[in-house]
Amino acid sequence: MDTEKCTSCKAPLSEPGWTKFTCPKCGEPIYRCHRCRHQSVSYTCEKCGYQGP
Of 4, 18, 27, 41, which is the most buried if we count CB atoms within 10 A? Predict the structure, then answer.
């Protein structure tokens, strides 16, 4: 089984508080661990290069 990873830090999403949403530009799934969410670490969509907070 493949474990999803945070788009920002690549950590496995094993702890509570992570989220999944779609890229506003292309619709690709974006995964965020609780640490990156709370610290507002930027992310880059792997498909289209969109950068978000």
Answer: 18
